[in-house]
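Box 4.2: Ligand-aware structure prediction
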Amino acid sequence: MPEDKTSHINFNELSQKAISQPLIKNIYTADPSAHVFDGKIYIYPSHDIDAGNAFDDLGSHFAMQDYHVISMDNLQGEAKDNGVALKIEEVPWAEKQLWAPDANEKDGKYYLFFPAKDYAGIFKIGVAISDSPTGPFKPQPDAIKKSFSIDPAVFKDDNGSYYMYFGGIWGGQLQRWRTGEFNATASHSPFAHLPQNHEPALCAKVAKLTGDLLEFAEDARDVVILDENGQPLLQGDNERRFFEASWMHKYNGKYYFSYSTGDTHFICYAIADNPYGPFTYSGRILTPVVGWTSHHSIVEFKSEWYLFYHDSILSKGITHLRNIKVTKLEHDENGLVKTIHPYNDFKL
Ligand code: FUB
């Protein structure tokens, strides 16, 4: 996975072909988790920085240290950076790497869910609380019990239940939890501990949250994705299997689990009739963007659907310096999502 796959790209031309422009330019932002609270859009992104760490397959170059919340009154207006909402130094259990967060609201309180590595180098997921959707957020003293890996996405169902979807392979360490305990066998290879290509793929996880949104109400379950024959996707099916960046949206009573395929750079989705699945693979939402990672959220605002996503156009292709964007998303008459091509006909 060489970093410099972008030296051939004419970024001026690419920017002109792009279907959307960066929402904010004063800081680098990525992994946008968008929600509508009280009629306004709030985006919870990673805050990308260059900490000087070399690029590697375990994501050491993603060394983020704080979160900012971005707000928008509407999708045509300005995106406002509301400043620092939480810093790594304020989280007692966390040492480094504040990766992709999410947030949700309950009874007038706002909950920021975030992954970080603890002092043993193990990714866990924490919660921080605020009276305001823009923070500042006060972290709980410990990570969520039995949490692990990265990329939490917290979905509120119509009946008031909240579910956390999470996990990510390679640097996200999901493959090290296959027995239920962390496999501490040292390895710098992202492929260590993964299933073989002919075996069922590692699944994202889902757990219902307790009423106070601070704990898992149950052991996390597998988010199984089935192929067209009703068989679980295989680990070697790189263009369809789960890698990271879970999201859930509900459309016409169906549950749409969407995710990144990582090393093949697609955002794909799978549909079920309940929040636990099994889900049936249903197609691609977004074709590859500039930069290695792809990470998104899907939200309804004023009866239209939107895809929030990121790319690395502003930094001219630097993988860990990304910028958030938004574009319209459409479901067709059968409920399938129309695939979005971020640069029209421009070939990356
Ligand atoms: O931003 C750091 C990591 O990159 C996220 O947690 C992944 O989803 C990928 O976007």
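In the box above, the bound molecule is beta-L-arabinofuranose. Residues 13 and 346 are 9 Å apart (CA to CA).
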